[in-house]
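Continuing the series of single-chain predictions for the mutant panel. This is the parent chain; the variants come on the following pages.
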Amino acid sequence: MEIYLSSETEGRADSLLLPIRNMVDSLLDDIRKNEYGSALTSVGVFAIIMKEEMYDSGGYCERQYYSKVRKEADIRLRLNYKSFCNAEPEKRVELYKQHVSRALEIAADKAKSADPEFQRDKL
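Parent structure:
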């Protein structure tokens, strides 16, 4: 399965996230090499880390999209800007790992709904 990590960030969050994203990306190699079924072949995981006022104007909405035809998911979830930027480095890594895990669970749930044969529990 292909897994892509990306983000929409502003301010300090951008420079704080980049090394964490690169580190977590390498941890996903075992997940990438396994087969879970044909219902999901690609997942895009996007972290949205913006100051609250950016959300107030209706921007940067969360998205949980799954295409049964293309067998791909696009999961965009928010991380709280202040919590992320003010956290200790270890906590920041943990917050991002939880974010990626949650996104993969959402994608797997959608794939399992589309195809009961999808091996969600292996993911």
